[in-house]
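User: Hey, my collaborator sent me this sequence without any context and asked if I could get a structure. I don't really work with proteins. Can you help?
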Amino acid sequence: MVKMINTKYGYVTPQEAEMDAHLDKWMKRRAKQHGAFSLEKNKKVVIKNERC
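Assistant: No problem. I've predicted the 3D structure and written it out in structure-token form, which is a compact way to encode the shape of the chain:
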């Protein structure tokens, strides 16, 4: 029987825990690259000039 590890996702196998850690790390890096945590990006306001 495979030894189960308790993670934030519940009890998983060591291989699954390693894959989850790798995926979490990749997602944080990817979000940072695209400015998901950038406050400056959120301050930009687009003003549309609409004419009737």
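In plain terms: The first helix runs from residue 14 to 33. You can pass these tokens on to your collaborator as they are.
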